[in-house]
Specification:
single chain, 391 residues, alpha/beta, five-stranded mixed beta sheet
């Protein structure tokens, strides 16, 4: 007789709220006691217990759930027992996929103790499907209610993010309020100061990396002790990137405004998000202490709007951006570089469409081209100087 059984336990965020209100019935401990007692009563041999804490039943990328599915394919057990079908999954697609397709093909039986679900009973299938639909409708309604509740809180200026913006931390007395993290805030001020003094974003990142300043992800993990994960950062990333500096320079939260609702989930059944246009963002001014002044932030925005001159001449291209040296790219033939005169804090990049061994006529053209480049730099720096004096 096939009686090797595994127990599957799951506790969701909603269950945690119930526990805070005193309802212990959904706790992992009570699920475990219930299922062990059921298994012993029915002479099932419990070979393993899988558990997912604080995981939604809408998704199948739960650690314990995924491990159970992998070991099911290895034939390590014959029966899966859960408190209810909803503990196993609240997604109708997953109910059909696993309970009515994958498990029967693997010879695995599923039992829901409280709601009487049993895939070994053929007449039980319609009730399982109805049960699955009810569970999914419940999730949809719950998702709508939570989204509405969150928007109300956002409009009140309450912080709802899972991790605070770099430079801030949660107020111990009010987790929906941000307070300044002085160390990280000083890095933010330094970034804005360097940018307003003429340093490019990539250059700022290089300076911070050279000074041994931890990137925000590592700072949150190693210094603040947060269980923080950034899907856009590789585990080996330790250097400040252009994009990180760009994000900081454009984050309105640093002037004391709460900015939320920048993205929405495509569906309550999907973790993917889509970015929302700025007019749909929820911005509440003066909700927390500012790290930089509004004038400083506005100046940083204006500088980013200055058009960088690009010159095309006889197949050559030159453009100015943050850096500190003149680089001449000669296709695959090599690269040479030279310093820009003192006082210039920009880079001129020249890309050639042909190798850099020229005839005399080409050399003359190149010299004329260089003269035009220096003229552009002078004019651009002059405009920057006029802007700085004006501000």
């Amino acid at each position: 007789m096939k009686n090797r059984a595994v127990l599957y336990l799951r506790l969701s965020k909603e269950d945690l709220d119930k526990l805070r209100e005193g309802d212990e019935s959904a706790s992992i401990k009570n699920q475990r006691l219930l299922l062990i007692e059921y298994a012993l009563t029915n002479n099932f041999e419990v070979v393993k217990i899988y558990c997912d804490d604080d995981e939604s039943g809408l998704y199948d990328d739960r650690p314990g759930f995924e491990e159970m599915l992998e070991e099911a394919k290895l034939g390590l057990f014959d029966i899966v027992i859960a408190k209810t079908q909803a503990r196993f999954s609240r997604n109708m697609e997953h109910i059909e996929k696993y309970l009515h397709h994958d498990f029967p093909n693997l010879g695995i039986r599923f039992i829901g103790v409280v709601d009487g679900v049993d895939t070994a009973v053929a007449s039980n299938k319609k009730s399982r499907q109805i049960n699955g639909l009810v569970n999914e409708w419940y999730c949809e309604d719950l998702s709508d209610n939570i989204r509405s509740s969150f928007k109300i809180k956002m409009k009140k200026g309450q912080f709802l993010g899972s991790s605070c913006p770099y430079g801030y931390k949660r107020d111990p007395s009010n987790h929906n309020h941000l307070i300044v993290d002085e160390y990280a805030a000083n890095i933010i001020r330094r970034i804005f100061s360097m940018y307003l003094s003429g340093c490019g974003k990539a250059k700022i990142g290089s300076v911070l990396s050279a000074d041994g300043v931890l990137i925000p992800t590592l700072y949150k993990q190693q210094i603040l002790g947060e269980n923080y994960k950034n899907c856009r950062v590789m585990e080996t990333t330790k250097n400040w990137s252009y994009q990180t500096i760009h994000t900081i320079l454009n984050n309105q939260v640093y002037v004391g405004d709460m900015v939320q609702n920048r993205a929405n989930k495509l569906s309550y059944k999907d973790k993917k998000k889509k970015k929302l246009p700025k007019e749909q963002w929820i911005i509440v001014p003066n909700t927390h202490e500012a790290i930089i002044s509004r004038d400083t932030f506005a100046r940083a925005q204006e500088i980013q709007q200055i058009e960088i001159p690009i010159l095309y001449y006889k197949g050559y291209k030159a453009e100015i951006n943050g850096g500190g040296q003149l680089g001449i790219n000669a296709g695959t033939s090599g690269r040479i570089s030279m310093n820009i005169p003192a006082g210039f804090n920009d880079t001129v990049l020249i890309s050639f469409k042909e190798p850099w061994y020229w005839r005399c006529s080409e050399i003359v053209s190149f010299m004329a081209y260089m003269f035009l480049i220096w003229t552009i730099i002078f004019k651009w720096r002059e405009s920057r100087g006029n802007y700085d004096r004006k501000n």
